[in-house]
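Possible regression after last week's pipeline update?

I re-ran a chain I had predicted before the update to compare outputs. Posting the input and the new output here so someone can diff against the archived version. Not blocking, just want to make sure nothing changed silently.
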Amino acid sequence: MKTIIEPFRIKMTEPIKLTSKSERIAALKKAHNNIFLVDAEDCCIDLLTDSGTGAMSTKQWAAMMLGDESYAGSRSWKKFESTIHNITNIKHVFPTHQGRAAESILATTRLKPGDMVPNNSHFDTTRANIEFVGAGAVDLLTDAGLDPALEVPFKGNMDLRKLENFIEETGVEKIPFCMITVTNNTGGGQPVAMENIRAVKEILKKYGIPLVIDACRFAENAYFIHENEAGYENKSLLEIAREMFAYADAATMSCKKDGLANIGGFFICNNDAWAEDFKNLLILKEGFPTYGGLAGRDLEVISVGLMEALEYDYQVYRHATVTYMGEKLEAMGIPFVKPVGGHAVFLDAKAFLPDIPALQYPGVGLVNALYIEGGIRGVELGSVMFGKRDENGVEIPANLDLVRLAFPRRVYTQSHFDYMIEVIEEVWKNREEISGYKITYQPKFLRHFTCHFEQVN
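New output (post-update):
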């Protein structure tokens, strides 16, 4: 088998600041041991997120020059709308400055206190926007998705039995809509099968509940379906994406992922009343409905990027980089979520550091160890990000304690990945030296972004 090469050439370079271990220790201390608060220039390899951190193509850079900055009804808006219609065939299209803005307006216009929104797994901003308006966000992931070591396809699926039971127990009147996230970021970047999306839609249709797709990584999910689901091997990724959206009544999207852009998002829906409510609040919060907080050049970039993300050769390369790291970690016996996800490798912090209690946040310990050892910035997806509290205010740990190493699109080369693997191996060899952490400051919502940590001796 021939080496899978990057399907592009590098035309411009950006320097990386190489720091010493002592400098990184000082930087982390200054940031209160929270990797989010470390300056980007002090991170040699930045895997904090794949959101808005990718490199744009020549076609995208060229498209920026075509940006029509007219306030209303610009040519760039028409191109944006046409591209999304081509992919989704959904009636109403509203640009937003990023995905969480779409989530916020959707939650504000459609939810009230006491409502419940089921999902395969809500990600952080989705959950926060739902909870901010007093509603509840419930994860109904299949049991296979809760076992990091289990190597089966489509571990991002929603559990159909759990969904139907939830609807019966909660009552249709309290469920304004159901969501499904593709790929399932919280659960290790795992894909959702078309069969599962179709079955979820059938259940919801029976009860008259709309389906909203969180489509941030829809193209990567389409690739997994192409590779692993019978009947789709001869379909294009565009055809697969169209079928996914055919089951949706609405969708939110961060175009900073599979839009291959540095900023932007959208909300789409078929319901005229939903569209009217969304439009009115969009004008108040984001901007006129034909730009929604974005410059015309951003709309142009996204229009190109959405189609580039659906190119098969690009997805083959993208997945090969993730698989490459997974194979190396497997050979060293390092625990991670299997199979590898579409946009990241998720280390299993609970198995990596079994002696650190869940509420001493082993994921934070591992994230900080990776940064100190090699300047690699990852992110904890565990009890800091997804923990809850019971009715007495007692903290309940998350089901999974993961560390996500999210790969920016078209940014790092194989030598960077080899370096990352060496750093992870060194941390693995010295894992007994890693300590737990406690929180010394936290905000009410999305605490992981700004909270402060202190080591537990």
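Follow-up from reviewer: compared with the archived run. DSSP finds 16 helices and 16 strands in the chain. Marking as no regression found.
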